[in-house]
Design brief:
2 helices, 328 residues, 7% helix, mainly beta
């Protein structure tokens, strides 16, 4: 066995060289090589990791066109990328472009504003974005994806709060475009969106798993969850609440209400708790304007309203193990 391992190792070294290359680590913070995140991004090569020390990085905007991991170091608070002026690139604090694959961990984004009111903590126009343990608040959009490049977005263990612009209806906590092939939101907390939606995705495949998605007392979102182009969508294990100040009190989860139509129109709503605190008695907890399949399984619906409004007479509809209860 040992002789075999030696032979295999020798063969790999002959094929790839005696050393396996790893990306460099660039450090950002007081007393570090770089004092600005944008400077480290500009200096980095594809495959590098950028480690950001705790602190506030004001108006530190960056274009990212290479594969990078950007992560905040442990501390009492996440490193904070704060915009206090309109963003000169017209898009976001981080703008991901080209075919870049980017991982962002343990960072805070706030204050993103641009002239067309679509400023984002992260504007995703690249190939792949993974976000872990980040906090997006008080931006026009928390994360906004869009552009002509097919892409994936995966978000987990992150918080989105108070993003949007009161009365406009255009900005959201999270907005994923129709160019997205797969969107995952997992174990996250999206709440208090202003006028737009707490979660909006036009992706062809959606996984919305084990989140808290809530207006709470002060949020003025339209829908709590909006999947306007349909897609194969799994909404599983979430707490989804519509609050008393919601701008659109007729629907909590909306499916295929407008826009282009994704190739697959299948909606699976399983093991969720929905709460209607809007004060409206005929709210649709789930409204699917068009669907070939709409399964509601083992959900708890609290408050007045209709569990499912389905506009497709011939859809494969399943209502199994759901419970309806009145709020106290």
């Amino acid at each position: 066995m040992r002789r075999s391992l030696v032979i295999i190792t020798a063969a790999l070294c002959a094929l790839f060289g005696s050393e396996i290359a790893h990306g460099a680590t660039l450090e950002v913070g007081p007393g570090k090589t770089y004092t600005k995140v944008s400077a480290a991004i500009k200096a980095a090569a594809s495959g590098d990791t950028i480690e950001v020390s705790p602190g506030t990085y004001t108006n530190d905007f960056a274009q990212i066109n290479k594969d990078l991991t950007i992560k905040g170091l442990a501390g009492k608070a996440r490193p904070h990328l704060q915009a206090t002026t309109q963003i000169s690139n017209g898009k976001g604090i981080f703008v991901i472009g080209g075919t870049a694959k980017v991982v962002v961990e343990r960072l805070e984004f706030s204050g993103a504003k641009v002239k067309d009111k679509n400023g984002a903590g992260i504007r995703m126009q690249g190939s792949s974005l993974e976000v872990r343990d980040c906090y997006f608040h008080d931006n026009q959009n928390g994360i906004l994806s869009g552009g002509a490049v097919p892409h994936t977005v995966h978000i987990e263990r992150s918080e989105f709060a108070n993003n949007g612009n009161q009365g406009s209806g255009y900005e959201h906590n999270i907005y994923i475009s129709g160019d997205c092939t797969e969107f995952t939101l997992r174990e996250s907390y999206s709440h208090g969106a202003k006028s737009g939606h707490n979660v909006k995705s036009r992706a062809k495949l959606n996984y919305i798993l084990y989140n808290r998605i809530m207006d709470e007392a002060t949020g003025t979102a339209s829908y709590s969850v909006d999947l306007p182009q349909g897609g194969r969508s799994y909404v599983i294990g979430n707490l989804i609440q519509q609050g008393p100040k919601a701008e659109n009190k007729g629907t909590i989860l909306s499916y295929k209400a407008e826009g282009a139509t994704n190739p697959i129109l299948e909606l699976f709503v399983i093991n969720n708790t929905f709460v209607n605190d809007s004060g409206k008695t005929n709210t649709n907890f789930v409204r699917a304007k068009t669907a070939t399949k709409a399964w509601l399984i083992n959900n708890l619906f609290i408050g007045p309203g209709n569990m499912l409004s389905l506009g497709s007479a011939n859809a494969d509809k399943k209502d199994q193990g759901n419970l309806k209860a009145q709020a106290n």
